[in-house]
Amino acid sequence: MAAKTKNQVVDSKKQFDAIKKQFETFQILNEKGEVVNEAAMPDLSNDELRELMRRMVYTRILDQRSISLNRQGRLGFYAPTAGQEASQIASHYALEKEDFVLPGYRDVPQLIWHGLPLYQAFLFSRGHFRGNQMPDDVNALSPQIIIGAQFVQTAGVALGIKKRGKKSVAITYTGDGGASQGDFYEGINFAGAYKAPAIFVVQNNRYAISTPVEKQSAAETIAQKAAAAGITGVQVDGMDPLAVYAATREARERAVNGDGPSLIETLCFRYGPHTMAGDDPTKYRTKEIENEWEAKDPLVRFRKFLESKDLWTEEDENKVIDAAKEEIKEAIKKADAEPKQKVTDLISNMYEELPVNLVEQMEIYKEKESK
Ligand SMILES: Cc1ncc(C[n+]2csc(CCOP(=O)(O)OP(=O)(O)O)c2C)c(N)n1
C-alpha cells in the first residue's frame, strides 16, 4: 500500500511571514526630513509643530546638562536620554493633561512635560523624597526602577480609569529589556482582557544595558507580542517624531473609545551610556552602529522638515537653548536649597499611620536629629 503523505500541521514559515507583514515599521518622516506618508500626517497646527520641536531641543539640552551635573557630583542617578527624544517627547505630546503617566527610570522628560517641576526631577536624581512627590495636578507615578513593574501597575491604573468612567488613558514606558519580563506579559494581557484604556510603549533602543535585543527574544518584533494578548500592536520608527505622535494619538483614541489597549514599539537608540554609573558602550557596540543611528537623529530630521516649511530658524533654536540653560540653572539652585532629607522624613512619608515598631524608631531618630 502506498504511504499516505501527511499534511503539515503548521507551516512555520507561512506563519512568520504573515506576522512580519502585519508589523512593518510605521514612518512618516524619513531621515532627510521628507514626508513619505502624507496620508498619515497628524493634525498638528504650525504652532503645535514648533512646540514639539521646542520640547525636543529643550530635552536634548537637559540631557547634556544632566550628564555634566552628574560628572560634577551635583546629581545622583541619571539615565541619559539623547537619541530617544522622538520616542519620549512625541508620544507624550499626544496625551492630555488628565492622562496618567507611569515612567521608567529613563523617562524623566515625559514627567517634566507632564508637569513635574524640574527641581523635583533633580531631587529624584539625588534620591530625595521630594522628587517623588507629584504635584496634585500631575497624574503620574515616580520613575520605576524595577524593570517591567510599571506594566502591571498601568493595567491597574487603566482599569481604575475605566471603572470611574473617565475619558483618559494610562501610558507607560519600558525598554526592549523590559519586554522580556513577566510583568510585561501580565500587564498587556490583563489590560487586554479588561479592555482597559492603556498605552504600553516599549522604547527599543537595541540594548538592555549591554545585552542586544536579538539575544532577548526570538520574535522578530516586540510589537507582535501584542497579538498574543489580543491587543493592537504597532512598530514605529522611534526617531521620527511625527510617526510616534500619530501612533500614540491613535492609540489614545482607541483607548478612550473603549477599544482597548495598544502596544507601541519605537525603534530608537540611546547615544550615551546606559546610566552614569559607569558602563562603557564601546564594550558592546561599534562606532559604525552608533554612526548609523546618529544619522537618523530625531532633532535633525524634524529641524529639516520644519525649515522646509519656514517654521524654524537657527535663531529659534538658540532661543530655546538659552532659555533651557537658564531654567536648568535656576532649578538646580532650587534643588540645592531644599532641606536635607532626614531619616524621620523617610519614615513619616511612607505611612499614614506608623506601625508600632516604627513609632519607636521615629522617637529614636527625632532625638538624634534634634542634636
Ligand atoms: C527586575 C529587575 N531586574 C534587573 C534590573 C537591573 N537593570 C537595570 S536597567 C536594566 C536593563 C533594562 O534595559 P531596557 O529595558 O532595554 O531599558 P533601557 O535601559 O535600555 O531604557 C537592568 C537589567 C532591574 N532594575 N530590575
UniProtKB/TrEMBL annotation:
GO terms for molecular function: pyruvate dehydrogenase (acetyl-transferring) activity. Heterodimer of an alpha and a beta chain. InterPro entries: Alpha-ketoacid_DH_E1_comp, DH_E1, PdhA/BkdA, THDP-binding. Residues 53-343 form the Dehydrogenase E1 component domain. It comes from Bacillus gobiensis. The keyword Oxidoreductase applies. It comes from the Bacteria. It catalyses: N(6)-[(R)-lipoyl]-L-lysyl-[protein] + pyruvate + H(+) = N(6)-[(R)-S(8)-acetyldihydrolipoyl]-L-lysyl-[protein] + CO2. Gene3D superfamilies: 3.40.50.970. One of its GO terms (biological process) is branched-chain amino acid catabolic process. Keywords: Oxidoreductase, Pyruvate, Thiamine pyrophosphate. This is Pyruvate dehydrogenase E1 component subunit alpha. Its cofactor is thiamine diphosphate. The pyruvate dehydrogenase complex catalyzes the overall conversion of pyruvate to acetyl-CoA and CO(2). It contains multiple copies of three enzymatic components: pyruvate dehydrogenase (E1), dihydrolipoamide acetyltransferase (E2) and lipoamide dehydrogenase (E3). Its EC number is 1.2.4.1.
